[in-house]
């Protein structure tokens, strides 16, 4: 049994980042799904840029030019990404159906410059959702104070969301509140809510790089401790384990079949040679592990004997004892700003690459 089936045995799904057209033309995506049991993919700006710099999209650019559809780099990007998402969503439709909508998602970040205002973020989300036209599309929205109302609005309009940059339990609870508000709005309108989903993504490597150097006398990473705490919150709120909270009471009042606010451990920015200890310690039922292809290929044939996140019940004490002189909120704000800037830069580089292709 290799890595992905091994993780699935413990109730965890694996999604891969870096999807681009070559995965389909070379048969890789089909192999990942059929042989490994891959449960989802994400398109990212960097991988798409590399593929465009190569030859994967030359035919698309030729078609755009011949049919007079190429107006500018942004319009070409929209054409390419919609086509990619439609093709990938088609491959995952059976997984999506077999798992009753718990898996089989294809996800994409909104253009970062659309995230500067809630109105532009909503417009961009609605445009790509309608253009792709598949129910197993998942739109990534940063869980910032500015964009939490966007998450609520999209859920209330039956658009699936992956709330990213969730670094702490307090942010998770804020996303949960936005998710609940969107679901409650749908229920008030007499609409079904069982086919609407929201995930939350925790950037594991980035959290460690920001916090670990500031912690002394700890034998584990801060991100793993934080993941344990977040998973406890997930169980308290969604699985009704432990005492009741106001959010949990609202959750109980929803109709049956509603999807819980699942956690995604984003390990894509961890070097493959360092990733194994994270993979071993971040296993938990009903969560998702997001990996890049290099990490998967490195450990693909290895069967897993994990240390489950649920094994340690004293996690909150561990987390707080290591942060007595650290303001996590300040660090989180800094991390969010850095990630937003990094995404904006990556998207601009992608547009520059597309513009160069257009001129050839």
From TrEMBL:
GO biological process entries: carbohydrate metabolic process; pentose-phosphate shunt
Catalytic reaction list: D-sedoheptulose 7-phosphate + D-glyceraldehyde 3-phosphate = D-erythrose 4-phosphate + beta-D-fructose 6-phosphate
EC primary class: transferase
Short name of one Pfam family: TAL_FSA
Enzyme Commission number, as recorded: 2.2.1.2
Transmembrane segments annotated in the record for this chain: none
Cellular-component GO terms for this entry: cytoplasm
Pathway info: Carbohydrate degradation; pentose phosphate pathway; D-glyceraldehyde 3-phosphate and beta-D-fructose 6-phosphate from D-ribose 5-phosphate and D-xylulose 5-phosphate (non-oxidative stage): step 2/3
Subcellular location: Cytoplasm
InterPro entries attached to this UniProt entry: Aldolase_TIM, TAL/FSA, Transaldolase_2
Keywords: Cytoplasm, Pentose shunt, Schiff base, Transferase
Known role: Transaldolase is important for the balance of metabolites in the pentose-phosphate pathway.
PANTHER family (UniProt xref): TRANSALDOLASE
Family label: Belongs to the transaldolase family. Type 2 subfamily.
HAMAP family the UniProt entry points to: Transaldolase_2
Protein name from the UniProt record: Transaldolase
Species assigned in the record: Scytonema hofmannii PCC 7110
Lineage: Bacteria, Bacillati, Cyanobacteriota, Cyanophyceae, Nostocales
Gene this chain is encoded by: tal
């Amino acid at each position: 049994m290799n890595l992905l089936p091994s993780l699935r045995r413990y109730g965890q799904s694996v999604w891969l980042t870096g999807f681009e057209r070559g995965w389909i033309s070379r048969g890789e995506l089909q192999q990942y799904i059929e042989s490994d049991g891959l449960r989802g993919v994400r398109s990212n700006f960097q991988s798409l840029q590399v593929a465009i710099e190569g030859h994967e999209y030359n035919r698309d650019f030729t078609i755009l030019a011949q049919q007079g559809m190429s107006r500018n780099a942004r319009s070409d990007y929209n054409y390419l990404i919609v086509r990619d998402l439609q093709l990938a969503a088609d491959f995952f439709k059976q997984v999506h159906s077999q798992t009753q909508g718990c898996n089989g998602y294809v996800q994409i970040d909104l253009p970062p410059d659309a995230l500067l205002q809630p109105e532009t973020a909503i417009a961009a989300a609605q445009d790509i959702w309608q253009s792709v036209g598949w129910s197993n599309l998942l739109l990534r929205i940063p869980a910032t104070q500015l964009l939490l109302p966007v998450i609520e609005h999209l859920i209330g309009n039956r658009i699936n969301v992956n709330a990213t940059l969730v670094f702490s339990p307090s942010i998770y609870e804020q996303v949960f509140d936005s998710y609940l508000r969107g679901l409650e709005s749908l229920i008030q309108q007499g609409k079904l809510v069982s086919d609407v989903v929201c995930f939350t993504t925790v950037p594991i490597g980035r959290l460690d790089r920001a916090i670990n150097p500031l912690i002394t006398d700890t034998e584990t990473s801060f991100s793993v401790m934080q993941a344990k705490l977040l998973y406890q919150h997930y169980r308290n709120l969604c699985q009704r384990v432990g005492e009741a909270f106001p959010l949990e009471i609202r959750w109980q009042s929803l109709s049956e079949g509603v999807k819980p606010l699942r956690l995604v451990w984003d390990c894509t920015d961890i070097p493959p040679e360092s990733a194994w200890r994270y993979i071993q310690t971040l296993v938990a039922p009903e969560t998702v592990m997001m990996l890049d292809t290099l990490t998967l290929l490195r450990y693909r044939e290895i069967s897993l004997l994990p240390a489950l996140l649920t094994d340690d019940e004293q996690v909150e004490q561990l987390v707080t004892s290591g942060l007595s002189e650290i303001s996590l909120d300040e660090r989180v704000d800094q991390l969010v700003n850095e990630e937003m800037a990094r995404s904006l830069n990556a998207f601009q580089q992608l547009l520059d690459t597309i513009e160069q292709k257009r001129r050839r």
